[in-house]
Design goal:
The structure holds 2 protein chains of 2 kinds. Chain A is of the alpha+beta class. Chain A has 2 domains: about 120 residues, Rossmann fold (3-Layer(aba) Sandwich), CATH 3.40.50; about 120 residues, Sandwich (Tumour Suppressor Smad4). Helices cover about 20% and strands about 30% of the residues of chain A. In chain A, strand 6 and strand 7 form a beta hairpin. Chain A is elongated. Chain B is mostly beta strands. Helix content of chain B is about 0%, strand content about 50%. Chain B has no helices and 18 strands. Chain B is globular, with a radius of gyration of 13 Å. Chains A and B meet through strand 10 and strand 13 of A and strand 1, strand 2 and strand 3 of B.
């Protein structure tokens, strides 16, 4: 059975006609399923885990990046490290006027047109970043001020200038060089630092917007003032935090126009 | 100024690691891919590929690479399996070992230079 999880904002009247069109298209395509409308007191994680236990065929997010981030966490956390069961695929129906940049990257149009993508059921496996006991699909970002990073337990990085540190899985907000190959299917996370002098790199007279870039298996980010790390532009995680690639890959329904 | 030779990491996007100008790395740094250093490093630097040290960079450590282009300051031994290029701003306090070398006018070396055998 398909399980549709509606973000809490979709109950607002202004989304009524959009939701009606989506539900009609789903019926036309024979993709009906169970609808869960998130309430303030409802535990999303618990609801998702229950539906997976009951044999959900697909968990479909109706909303933007925020609900997708929560569903990614709920789905991945259901499976234990040594669990070889196939992970339930996630589908997305992005809602107009809500931040849905992840869906855009995955080639999924907003509103009822996303139902056609669900119908085609083209599934790709994506890497997922792990930070402490949470997961992220896009980026983990923290300011450089008072922050230090230990990489693979072998060296430490200190940054003497204002800027941003990012661990990138699927590129969203962070600025990487145009020719830097980063995607969510390459089997590793990218660790980058952008500072104000990044533009002057190499002293070659030619200005480039190149950040510092490091390879890593596992890194620990600390901040003297206890600043937090923002993941997927949705949730804050306390420092010190350990980041690595999750052992499980996400299975997600994508469109033809994906730009992973 | 770096020339446009094939070994130059002319596009930073092709380098596996880039240590920018405001970055300080402490500890041993080992890599398989190309490395560009424009900041400070205190610790051993090793790569199986090309190493490029910019004119503002400062390295307090021994370094080892397949090939290297150095324009910055190094306090430590430099061991390069293939071609080592020292630019006019290079300042090395340590011993150097390489198979091929070019030294631009103005580069400073305080140490011994050993040319290793070419491997065919």
């Amino acid at each position: 059975m398909h399980v549709y999880i509606y973000d809490s904002f979709v109950v607002e009247k202004k989304f009524d006609s959009q939701i009606a069109k989506i539900e009609t298209r789903l019926t036309d395509l024979g993709l009906n399923g169970k609808i869960i409308r998130l309430g303030l007191l409802q535990s999303l994680k618990e609801s998702v885990h229950n539906e997976i236990k009951k044999g959900a065929k697909t968990i479909i997010v109706v909303g933007g990046n925020a609900i997708l981030h929560k569903i990614v966490n709920a789905v991945i956390s259901f499976y234990t490290e040594n669990d070889y069961a196939q992970i339930v695929p996630i589908g997305i129906i992005p809602i107009e006027n809500k931040n849905s940049s992840f869906a855009q990257k995955l080639g999924i149009p907003v509103g009822a047109d996303a139902c056609n993508i669900l119908s085609a059921r083209r599934i790709e496996e994506l890497d997922v970043g792990k930070i402490n006991n949470k997961f992220f699909l896009g980026e983990a970002i923290i300011q450089t001020e008072d922050t230090s990073v230990n990489v693979d337990g072998s060296y430490t990085i200190e940054i003497n200038e204002a800027g941003e540190i990012a661990v990138v899985n699927m590129l969203d907000q962070f600025k990487l060089p145009d020719n830097f190959p980063s995607n969510a299917q390459d089997g590793h996370l990218d660790f980058c630092i952008n500072t104000s002098s990044s533009n002057k790199l190499l002293s070659l007279g030619k200005k480039t917007n190149t950040p510092s870039i490091f390879n890593f298996q596992e890194l620990t980010i600390s901040n003297k003032k206890g600043s937090q790390i923002t993941i997927d532009n949705v949730e804050q995680v306390d420092t010190p935090a350990t980041i690595n690639l999750a052992s499980k890959k996400l299975r997600i329904i994508v469109g033809k126009e994906r730009g992973l | 100024m770096f020339n446009k030779e094939e070994k130059t990491v002319s596009r930073p996007g092709t380098a596996e690691t880039i240590i920018g100008p405001s970055i300080k790395v402490k500890g041993d740094f080992h890599g398989d891919g190309d490395i560009i250093i424009e900041g400070e490093v205190e610790g051993e630097v090793t790569t199986k590929s090309h190493l490029e040290v910019g004119s503002k960079a400062s390295i307090l450590a021994n370094i080892s690479a397949k090939s290297a282009k150095i324009a910055g300051k190094i306090k430590g031994d430099v061991k390069v399996k293939g071609y080592l290029e020292l630019l006019n701003s290079a300042n090395i306090s340590g011993n150097i070992e390489a198979t091929e070398i070019s030294i631009e006018k103005g580069a400073r070396i305080d140490g011994n230079l050993k040319m290793s055998q070419t491997h065919h």
